[in-house]
Amino acid sequence: MDYFKTAPNFMWGVATAANQVEGGWDEDGKGMSIADCMRYRPKIDTNDYQAVNQMDSHEIELALADHSTKGWAKRHGVDFYHRYREDIKLLAATGINTYRFSISWARIFPNGDDTEPNQAGLDFYLAIVKELAKYHITPVVTLSHYEMPLNLVLKYDSWYDRRVIDYFERYAKTVIDYLHQYVQYWIPINEIDSIIRHPFSSAGLVADRFPEDNFKTVTYQAMHHQFIAAAKVVAYCHQNYPKMQVGSMITRTMVYPYNSDPDNVLAATQTMRDVYAFSDIQVRGRYPAFLLEKLTADGIKIKFGSNDKKLLAENTADFVAFSYYSSICTASDTTGLPVTKANRTIGVYNQYLPESEWGWQIDPVGLRLSLIDLYDRYQKPLFIVENGLGAVDELGPDLRVHDTYRISYLRQHIRQMLIAIANDGVELMGYCIWGTTDMISASSNQMSKRYGLIFVDLDDNGDGTYNRYLKDSYYWYQQLLSYGTQIPVNYLQEADTKLQCS
């Protein structure tokens, strides 16, 4: 085989989240979001994801009292709010045809429960999709990506209160109606499974606000309300805009048994079932029996509305989107086993895999396995909406970043993705690199963990010019996309590939 072939409509793109790139946190009527409460805390061990991503009421009070951006990285982001035209122009020059981004709920409904939307917020996102249309770039829009209005946390305890479903539905309908001429692909909630691992940064749940309740029960009840809200988005789009497609999105971390001990194989299988439970609900339209059994065993009872089961069953996702960065191992007894990290997940170290500077193990074959597993399970189109490498990048005297390590990561993962299409019968809609420009890290709220194809002159303290500089990976992706639907196999072979820069 000399070429990897893709469909003419394959969606090659990049991806970001509003809270990590936009900035403009208090401009033009935007309200405060949960992301605006998150600050870079370098002394916290990022192995402890709960410590990094969870907030208590005292910390929220501190955030409310401080109106500066210093120390609050997601308040300033990388200034996409003012530089989106520049950034989109740079991205268009790579040849991408897709851009996945999110909308800040608090920019549209500043308090979440407002009766009328903030027009300036709507117009900002309309300007973005019009700018994308100018370059023939298809938008894929996420409605909730770790940035719900803080007022909904303080007034309603976030997604735990069923009324928040209605507020989200109002927000979603408003945005969908306003952008419907430009946006066909929607994702209601980013990594909907993440609420279990980091309930505040994902869904605004604050443990100390529930002193009399089992916080696990609170979390699963909030999760259920998110599923209902997402199903209502599916229903609205299908009824009013039949050409629209709405996807489920999960965090897809590949999980292996630590060794061939059957007990460890069983542990890995059970962990993967926990991952699949969330997409099962959105794709199959019902809670899987094993999840219901697990909840019962843990004493967790979810309250269903009278129409919830019907709503879930009749409004399933059109495609399955997922993020993939790395893999982990697990065992029936992990005592004493070496620890590794993945996308906000802790697992057992895999001796066969290298790791990134942040301890995430690099596993391209795991992406192929994920595609096979997901497609065999659902037989619905798949969409890789996040894949990339976080690393410390240095801007050289030539004003370039020579990120050969990122090129190697992307090359290996894209190769495995294309093999899955060619050999494994996987139906794949597209692939998006995380991210575009560098951005604030979702987990550690730092700038020095860089993901972008474009370097942004900004440090962890928020100091810098915000100027943009192209990395070698930018040119590598540009060259890849220039091949169109026939990508030479040797361009994706580690030893044979030579970087071509324009």
TrEMBL record:
Catalytic residues identified in the record: E386 (nucleophile)
One of the Pfam families matching this protein, by short name: Glyco_hydro_1
Domain of life according to the entry: Bacteria
EC number: 3.2.1.-
UniProt entry keywords in alphabetical sequence: Glycosidase, Hydrolase
Molecular functions (GO terms): beta-glucosidase activity
Biological process (GO), any one: carbohydrate catabolic process
GO cellular component: cytosol
Coiled coil: none
Signal is among the record's keywords: no
Xref: Gene3D superfamilies: Glycosidases (3.20.20.80)
InterPro entries the record matches: GH, GH_1_N_CS, Glyco_hydro_1, Glyco_hydro_1_AS
Family: Belongs to the glycosyl hydrolase 1 family.
Name of the molecule in the record: Glycoside hydrolase family 1 protein
Originating species: Lactiplantibacillus pentosus (Lactobacillus pentosus)
